[in-house]
């Protein structure tokens, strides 16, 4: 607490001393100056010394960036010399006026000239008060055309991020995203969409999110835009799965047809093998019988022949029935193959229709993109015109300020001349009075001498 009190006492004593003895004061009229990129600017600095009888002083201008000071120009009054830093040679000059004012002229301003500028006056034996003053210089630059990019895979159900960034702009430009449908109709962003520092994040994208996305980068000098065409397609893995399913169905149906055909073929061979005419056997014992039962044997033979004939007829009928069944089976297989072919053709046609629809969407998006680009180009031309008008206004304002400063300097010079004339007039009056007094004294002396001469005579 004691140290704090002593500190306040010290500040009070310094302020009291300055109020009685007039400390040096350095000032800059404005806390901040603004200039358009590529233009020129003049920074004024005025100082008032504590004592009017100072012998010399040193005045310097510095640029302060990231807490590091770099000297721009220095004036030495005793040598009447101005030193310009090599970094600023060719684009900087310093004018020292008779009214204790220093004007720093800077030309061809760039983004790198955004910084604090400090004016300091050093007078030997006069270091109290405010020996320096600081101002900030803001170089105004319209945003450069931003660069728009897509980060991520543009396929169904993926997450992507749209980025937008201008390489140049002062003050720092602010990006803003807008969304348009394929018909170029403004629309809100889908749910869960986030936007931060020019990054637009889209989640679980689908075909409905296809369209145009326009980013506008803006500061108070102007704006610039870029746009993206977003076309969301099904993923490659989904198309492969569909093709695999179709191939598996076709292969299964073909295998089933082959199995049915083989079963019918085996059944047909088995029925043809049973009871054919070529299998009838005749034995000599059937015709010759030592016991004399030839008639009975002939009767039996005839019965067997008749039975064989009946079997052959039945086999023929079975053969016809089998042929009919085979024809029916083959017809069924053909119908199933035809149905499978129809399904495959329908799937292929549906795929072609989907591809055609996607192609139409891409064509619509492309045509709308051309329209948007033409509109954006027109807007850019208008913005460039407005920026030019702003720059002209700034230049005119700067010239008016310079004229005002010149008038002020002339008025100060005229006041100084008037003061000097008044002093000279006073001196001349004093001299004339002295001459009159001397002349009167001489006259009185002559009269006195004449009187003395008369008295002597």
Please describe the topology of this protein.
Blueprint: H1 2-21, E1 24-27, E2 32-36, E3 41-48, E4 58-65, E5 68-76, E6 81-84, E7 92-96, E8 101-106, E9 115-122, E10 129-130, E11 132-140, E12 147-151, E13 160-165, E14 174-180, E15 186-187, E16 194-196, E17 199-202, E18 211-218, E19 223-230, H2 236-273, H3 294-456
Parallel strand pairs: 1-10, 2-11
Antiparallel strand pairs: 1-3, 3-8, 4-5, 4-9, 5-6, 7-8, 9-11, 12-13, 13-17, 14-15, 14-18, 16-17, 18-19
Helix pairs in contact: 2-3
Total beta strand runs: 19
Query: CATH topology of the domain at 20-140, which one?
Result: Immunoglobulin-like
Q: Describe the biggest sheet?
A: 6 strands, mixed
* Largest sheet: spatial strand order: 2-11-9-4-5-6
- The CATH C-level name of the domain at 20-140 is Mainly Beta
Structural class designation? alpha+beta
Envelope shape: rod-shaped
Instruction: Compute the number of helices.
Output: 3
Oligomer: single chain
Low-pLDDT parts are 1-6, 8-21, 274-290
Description:
The chain has 457 residues and is an alpha+beta fold. Among the domains are: 20-140, Immunoglobulin-like (Sandwich); 147-233, Immunoglobulins (Immunoglobulin-like, Sandwich), CATH 2.60.40.10. It has helices at 2-21, 236-273, 294-456, and strands spanning 24-27, 32-36, 41-48, 58-65, 68-76, 81-84, 92-96, 101-106, 115-122, 129-130, 132-140, 147-151, 160-165, 174-180, 186-187, 194-196, 199-202, 211-218, 223-230. The protein has a 6-stranded mixed β-sheet. Strands 7-8-3-1-10 form a 5-stranded mixed β-sheet, with no helix packed on it. A 4-stranded antiparallel β-sheet has the order 12-13-17-16, with no helix packed on it. Strand 12 (147-151) and strand 13 (160-165) form a beta hairpin. Helix 2 (236-273) runs antiparallel to helix 3. The longest helix has 163 residues, at 294-456. The protein is rod-shaped and about 235 Å long. The model is unreliable at 1-6, 8-21 and 274-290 (pLDDT under 50).
